Known about the structure:
mainly alpha; elongated; two-stranded antiparallel ribbon; single chain
Amino acid sequence: MVLTPTERIQAAEEAVRELKEALGGVGVVFPSLGVERVSAAGTYGLPLVDLGRCNLDTALRLAAVLHERAHP
């Protein structure tokens, strides 16, 4: 199935929304989380999700959440 450019961007935006919601649910916020626009303009595969940069506190919170999940 080949997606139109609009469908590709919509799929990526939905993935970003879901990821923001899931991360927010465990207290992790990536301020610059979004669709990587250069990949969204392409025609091959789905666009990439850019996790962006985060500060040290956010990185440590994410690590803690992942460790908790991996070792309940």
